[in-house]
Amino acid sequence: MEAKEIINKQKNSSLSDVCVYFDDKSSRDEETGQVDKFVGLRFLDGKLSIHFPVGYKKPESSDEKQIRLDVLNLISVLSSFGIPEAELDRNDFRSKHQNVEFPIHAYLFIISDFLNHGYYQQKEQIYKRGTSGKINWSRTIKQVRTQIADESPVYLEFITQKTLHNENALLTLIHKYCVYESFQKLGFLFSSYKPQKTALVFNKSLFCSVIKSKIASTFNEKEIHLFKNMLDMINYLDNSNEKKDFIYGTNNFHHVWEQLVDFVYGEKDKEKFYPKVYWRLNGSSKAFEFDSEKRSSLRPDTIMITNRGKPNQKIFVLDSKYYRYGATKNPNHLPDSSSVVKQLAYAEYIDNKDNRSKLPNDVRDSISDCSIYNAFIMPAENAEPENIGYVSADYVLPQDSEKVTKPYHKIYGILLDVRSLLYHHVPHDKQMISRLAKLIDKT
């Protein structure tokens, strides 16, 4: 049974019926009670579901066009900000497969290419002698003798050419197979059109051989791009039959969330603000330093700076937390003590005068005692960013104390609208940076 047919049998009358928006109760597996952290597209056991991240607001109306845009944008964000595509597909606790690598880029490309150009057809050039048709002058000069008229050489007939489209060619049939397969799984994202199923039986080795042979003999870049995407799809499919289940997404959307926030708000040279660690072992005259990855494992997600290098410069140490508080309003879903202590350490490292020589020159010269701030960035469905309060540690700011010696001793909790960020992620957006800075700077 095909995906579209199954959806209809389940009486899913619209695309909105297969979209899943986070809810603390409905987002738990019935058998294990485990929170379903998956974000992306999942088709398992005859059921399609599209999972949006925590805090993604469900549209007020079931507008199919808008939902399609939401799904395509989600796929785009996962591809752009996720880990490399080959590793983006995760072992899914609901899947029977250990590893599922779904080449969504190939499926989407084949659909889009078909809607714009139709089926691929092999072209065959037919040449013949005649007086009508497109003249091939190279062949005419070589194969046709000229006649003399009025003391000038003339051609009384020419070699003309005609292009025939061989619709029965094997490569065309393979493309039709790929188009049908693409529409069965993801065609609903583009239209209700259903291409006709070809009678061609799937044969991975034959399909790959034909396509690779064509790639080797053509110089048309657009065709090569199409053929390579067809190969990606064919390699994904079983040798005997097409896979019914597929997954495209991740159980670790926090990586995407961190990259999104850093892309919009962060400085490119943030590694210069990382605390570094080393070991000095007994009997050794030289300190032992870890490799770059381990040495910088303690690092903030984002360093945001306003008025960089100017007297009114402010540095904001941001830690992106893909936590559920924005959706549940449960205080237990807020950052815990380990996150708080690390966040304070990041700011203290920047504030320490002995460390400032390691910072960028323009930043170092403009740091003041009250110019460093701290914040946790969490997802929500707020139309506007919201400051929900702050967290601190009693060793820097006792609970009953109103005196704040350093602004970064208060780590503010900021809720950002997930949907807006997924749609409008502009690199180092000055307007969004300014708004966030004003929300955090409460002094």
Please give the order of strands in the largest beta sheet: 12-13-14-16-15
Structural class: alpha+beta
Query: The biggest beta sheet, please?
Result: 5 strands, mixed
What is the number of E strands?
16
Mean pLDDT level? 83
Low-confidence stretches: 1-13, 85-91, 95-100
* Proportion of residues in helical segments: 25-40%
Rg from alpha-carbon coordinates? 30 Å
What is the subunit organization of this protein? Answer: single chain
Number of H/I helices: 15
Based on Cα principal axes, name the global outline: elongated
Terminal CA distance reads 62 Å
Determine the strand fraction and express it as a percent band. Answer: 15-25%
Task: Give a concise summary.
By secondary structure, the protein is of the alpha+beta class.
Walk me through the structure.
The protein is an alpha+beta fold. The chain is built from 15 helices and 16 strands. The strands form 5 sheets. A 5-stranded mixed β-sheet has the order 12-13-14-16-15, sandwiched between helices. It has a 4-stranded mixed β-sheet with strand order 1-3-2-9, with helices on one face. Strands 4-8-5 form a 3-stranded antiparallel β-sheet. Helix 4 (about 105-115) crosses helix 6 (about 170-185) and helix 7 packs antiparallel against helix 8.
